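Dear Dr. L.,

I hope this message finds you well. Following up on our conversation about the binding site, I have prepared a predicted three-dimensional model of the protein together with glutathione. For your records, I am including the exact sequence and ligand specification that went into the calculation, followed by the structure tokens. Please feel free to forward this to your student if that is useful.
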Amino acid sequence: MNAFVVHSIPGSPFGRAVLAALEEKRTGYRLIAVAPPALRAPEHLARHPFGRVPVLEHGDYRLYETQAILRYLDRVLPEPALTPADARAAGRMDQALNVNDWYLFQGVANVIAFQRIVRPQLMGLAADEAAIGEAMPRAAQVFAELARLLGEQPFFAGAQLSLADLAIAAQLDFFLETPEWPVLAGPHPGLAAWLGRMRDRPSLRATTWERVAALAAAG
Ligand SMILES: N[C@@H](CCC(=O)N[C@@H](CS)C(=O)NCC(=O)O)C(=O)O
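The resulting structure of the complex is given below.
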């Protein structure tokens, strides 16, 4: 029996960051897929009162909010460490995680990735081009800031992979399939190269939408 159970929606970037962290730790887990309509069901609201994913269960301990889950996993599964020991590098990791949550997801990914991928593929609806257009200036600002934070470093917090790389790669990966990617990432080849390296990692390969959907279907 796997000690770690993750409730998530296949395709969720936040869920993917958690699964990728478990993969980096080479730790087995059980995935329980949550169908979007079930997010508001009492059973799921008991796990996550705000009706979102992911949720982690570890024995009798239950945790929601991706950053909390990622840090918990890094504490209970210390190897390989995904938080820098150096205070300044750890500060950069925390900053990048919050840029991901507050500026990349809110108003950028949850508009552009949603309109380009989730709406057509899961709902059969056309993308709202006006909404995408409105999100583009903010998206360009966020991509520029991510590129600046990354700089010439191999990873967001410096020489070593950290939780921030997993969270941001899971989020940015969605953009690769959109026509907005060349516009947003074109001016930032270092950021695009970093995403290419991240996508090559076994942890990211093991947690693509398709792989997670297959895992969910297998139970
Ligand atoms: N702050 C939450 C955000 C999680 C989140 O927004 N998850 C999305 C999927 S990527 C979700 O559950 N969306 C369902 C909804 O908004 O109804 C976290 O960090 O875990």
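In brief: The pocket of glutathione is lined by residues 9, 12-14, 39, 51-53, 65-66, 101 (CB under 6 Å).

With kind regards,
A. P.
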